[in-house]
Design goal:
The structure is a homotetramer.
Chain A: E1 4-9, H1 18-28, E2 32-38, H2 43-53, E3 56-57, H3 61-69, E4 77-80, H4 88-96, E5 101-103, H5 111-124, E6 128-130, H6 138-148, E7 155-163, H7 177-182, H8 185-188, H9 193-207, E8 213-221, E9 232-239, E10 244-250, E11 259-266, E12 270-274, E13 280-284, E14 289-294, H10 303-306, H11 319-337, H12 352-370, E15 376-377
Parallel strand pairs in A: 1-2, 1-4, 2-3, 4-5, 5-6, 7-10
Antiparallel strand pairs in A: 7-11, 8-9, 8-15, 9-10, 11-12, 12-13, 13-14
Helix pairs in contact in A: 1-11, 4-5, 5-12, 9-12
Chain lengths: ~375, ~375, ~375, ~375
């Protein structure tokens, strides 16, 4: 089975964090390899960054795309790890060329851009995965599968949250790159906290339950002086089945790292998951027992989930494998699309539709907050 | 040191739960004893219930009060454990007679009643404690003390929640008494979930931080068919210092027991507490360490808190001692008021002001929910 | 139902800890009351201590026994909370007089004394409960019940431990009373750490499994200079069914409070319990699920256990109720013995046989350690 | 920085587990790549396995070594992932050729073989790392560093354990390869449970504390009928400073996965670590606070440890990165040895001395158990 060849757009800056993370995720399984990249805005820096990675460098994504189209460069898919503002254009270009894309979240800067990508994906029928890393944790996948299978009955309510503390002070003024672009409207869009981590909480609420959000009432705060965008994000949402979701995120929770998680309450049971102990899932059915499931414990878990396990339970796979699982999903889609045999089923990880919904959610939340919490349709 | 003599109003019914709980809390320390009670509505049943408790019975609270006033019955304070609708009248009567009251929550049926009690308490200067049991957990007290002492800086945000699952079905139709009165507007007031457990989450948010709620945007749900009042309660609140509190409660979280807790995020640190592991407190200051404190570990904890410890840490005191601590507080207030020497300082547990605030909060939340989440002043 | 009248022997000293703990446990349920005590060695101090408790005082246990026998003093049972050396004589005297005894552990100073008590209990058929407080935690009771019911198959192995840190320094030299008598051979017997907390770990291993220890290989240490007895206790044991138990205890684990617990591995499943989170029990059957049970969650739990619950799950009962449950057990035995109707079944809490086994275990462990770990029969 | 080229010996069988695990660990960082392998005993199968990995295949390790020595094949180090019996010969051959080795544990079949490797390593001064994966967890490294720095004073006692349940039945008879070779004396050596996982607990006790074991008293059990070697392993050990270690391991703990961990009790503090929540470390100093540290939280952690972090705390790195860290260590040793600049310090991960000690420990434990627990020198 030949390795899939992957190209990377972005990810090469000195303060870049996710470029290397994706590189590790690509390499984790022996079935993919990073081979090329257009990794920085500055042409020279882009070539140097690629050289540091030991891959073929391009001065920009257009050059890389041309090389693919001319047959010079073999690429099975690209992964886009640029800041938010630089997702849309390369995604569009590669998708139009029929090249599958695994794109960082939030998907775009605007709803219109997101919808445009969705149209292209549908028309071209090209694989597209949105890098909501946490959805790659098998226990989060199991949560979705259980709910789909009716294990907890109909969903009534969801609590979904993401607490971080790294932006509790004006870190962006210190020159820290991650903080700088996330708090800059030009590079991050209309929301900082909502866009960066509120979208994770949103995906947990909607992707896991299979239920969209119809409308939202929001209160966004900016606690740190001098900051333009929100660093705290609070919403109450109406789900499309009439249920309620409370979706919150904050970046000012001093000492909190990545306290992301959700509780889903159904008519017959409840499910709870925490990112910081991601390889377990707590399920209750109201019979006095709390049942904990673990990644790697195959038993009677559905193959949709267990086909993503790498080691038996008790050795936590955790962060890099979770992201690698999203690469596995696009890999399975690609290989299946080519008619390769024996490819396990690809889990329905977030794609372009979830990206559109996420952008609409952020837009509606920002609007609602401006209108004093008025219920706003997505 | 003579034992304080306690009278109980309510608590004698066959399905009553909190009568016996208070009895245990009163008896836990050797300094108080339950001696009399007007424990049920029906006169005969009231006398029989008191006999079962081995105490002097009265046919109603008026009779008990008369006996006190005539000097027949010595009582140092009364505890009111009736359903919500039957708090106000006996509380008023005893307070007006200058007899201290420890009253179950929520304090009254209406804001006006609550304000009336507050006026009497102020005028008569008589001790009044509101039985928010969880505030009796020393680690919840420590949270309040630390915030007051500035340990986490200025409070920016609070998450406070209470998840239960016992009303996920129409249990009230089965004849279960606890469910029946709580879901009946005549006995419970304008809110079921909000009044019963939302008030706990409200107290956690406000009493612990020392910050009132100015206004609220709410969405109340009734998920179980045939139920009149809310069984799910969601709010976003503006605190009086401009901070935000997300206060939620639900009774439809299948398999959840008493998942009550809070996270407070300040400018310099964060504090987190969970009722189901009540004897520990998690404090973070953003230095990479999570610090856990434990009830019973004296060391340099403030005497306001440590004077409530009964055993060294590692043997969890938990539920009954927490409630007993509220009795200890009213006991300390009473003994101090009489000039007894050597009485440790009484912790500022919730009283009549917190009761008024709680009633205003429930009222404002119900109103806001009816007005589609419009921000509503307390 | 008349309250049982309880007498206390010991427990009145200024540094006494367990006198008040038993008092709380007796008072927790409305069915018992402490009425008399011979609480200190010095006659005058004994009377003063009783007065402080608000009970009838006696100058010594003999005087209290005489008062009972002469009909002056009604007592349904006595509880003995003296240091180890002063258990045997009063226990013997009251048992011989046919008065039930709830006695602190370890039961006696020597195996011979323990066997003597056992003979008396058998001959006189008088209720006797050994105050292994932790066995009163319903989840520890559930563990025993499950194993008895075959839920985890045949027991192969037990890990049982108790880690404390309070004697990591020579606290006994500071005048701390608890430390002083426990490290003094005259008052505590041949073993400090083994006798005080090793017996808890021993009971967890044997009472929970229903399996005795046949022989033991031990290594006892004294880490703190100037101390005569062990402050660290390590054994490997052969169970009577051929299985193995690793039973350890230490008092030099700095910062550890009462980290007592056990894991039992059977042919079909495993059970794990921790005293510091005593109200839950972890059960595994090798099917990829970890199942947690909780005190108070009735459902299909056996009535032997659930009849001891006081509140629904989610409000942890914990330490005082656990000890109260042992008083409940002797109370049920007494009431049943008198032919009272409707008394729930008394759980088989540790009694005189467990006391004898505990003394033999300590003796054998001390002997084995002296003989360089030679396997020694109990 | 050119990638180091790695060869693999073993790891190619259909039931092989650790071949792929090492492959992932090698690939996780962009600084190494697996390029060649002698992956199975059968020549044809070996070539096919290598082809599946997409690397250069050799019919056996000798052929691979010859290719290296002839200059045909560039290899910077090899990793040996064969069953125990096939570690010694290839390790010896490559070490003698001056080629660094990262070898699976236990290091050899006998003490003599282990000592032979130690002599070669010393003489040739060639990097050698023993693949005790868990020592690659930064929080386990931090534990070692803290103890070395005196943070908990002098070590008095260690509890170290490893509980698994996968061999609670005679899985080896089902044809499961992992079970088959581990329970076969010819392939695994004189101990199954002790050699496979007891060595992990041994390393935790000795490598973390920096203290060797002087002598051991052991009881080994074989619970599953028909099995020749131990499946349960219990020891009490004397440390070289006079302290005590209780080191246990079992494979019959039904439902337990990889419950490996340790508690170290020093004169000034205690440290506790659990493999199944490997990215945190619990430290206590007896001041009433439990302090938890987390991988990725740099702050004032020593660079020896923090230089191994890949992502900020809150995204758990866990299993693959832990093993990758051992590859990082041999990589740093190799690069430093070549005079490359800017290479961070290599953490003192287990090497050939720890391998010798482990073999001696297993031998002494097996001997002691045969001699009824007699204290046996290593």
């Amino acid at each position: 089975m030949a390795k899939l060849k992957v190209g990377m757009i972005g990810g090469g800056g000195p303060g870049s964090f996710f470029g290397m993370v994706h590189n590790r995720a690509i390499a984790l399984d022996a079935s993919r390899e990073l081979v090329a990249g257009a990794m920085r805005t500055d042409a020279k820096a882009a070539l140097r960054a690629a050289k540091d990675y030991g891959i073929k460098g391009y001065i920009n994504y257009q050059a890389m795309l041309e090389a693919v189209q001319s047959g010079e460069q073999a690429l099975d898919y690209v992964t886009i790890v640029t800041p938010n503002f630089a997702h849309y254009e390369p995604a569009k270009a590669f998708l139009q060329a029929g090249i599958p894309v695994l794109c960082e979240k939030p998907m775009t800067m605007t709803v219109a851009e997101a919808q445009d990508l969705a149209r292209i994906v549908k028309r071209k029928k090209v694989p597209f995965v949105l890098a909501h890393t946490y959805t790659g944790h098998p226990m989060m996948m199991l949560a979705k599968q259980m709910i789909k299978d009716g294990d907890i009955g109909e969903v009534r309510k969801v609590d979904s949250w993401y607490n971080q503390g790294w932006l509790a002070t004006d870190l962006e003024k210190s020159g820290q790159q991650q903080a700088a672009w996330r708090t800059d409207p030009k590079r991050t869009g209309i929301s900082n906290c909502g866009g960066d981590i509120g979208t994770h909480a949103f995906v947990a609420a909607t992707w896991v339950t299979g239920l969209g959000v119809k409308k939202v009432s929001a209160r966004l705060n900016t606690f740190v002086k001098g900051r333009v965008l929100d660093d705290d994000f609070n919403t109450i949402c109406e789900l499309e089945n009439g249920g309620t979701a409370v979706i919150t995120a904050t970046q000012i929770a001093v000492g909190y790292r990545n306290d992301n998680g959700f509780r889903v309450f159904g008519t017959k049971g409840s499910i709870e998951w925490h990112q910081e102990r991601a390889e377990s899932l707590l399920v209750r059915h109201g019979d006095g027992r709390d049942v904990t499931y673990w990644t790697g414990a195959e038993f009677d878990l559905p193959a949709e989930v267990s086909s993503y396990f790498r080691v038996p339970s008790g050795h936590n796979e955790d962060f890099f494998p979770a992201l690698a699982n999203l690469h596995t999903t696009i890999e399975r889609q690609i290989r299946k699309g080519r008619g390769e045999k024996g490819i396990p089923v690809a889990f329905p990880h977030p794609g372009v539709e979830e990206g559109v919904a996420g952008m609409k959610f952020i837009k509606a939340a920002v609007d609602s907050s401006k209108k004093k919490g008025a219920w706003t349709r997505l």
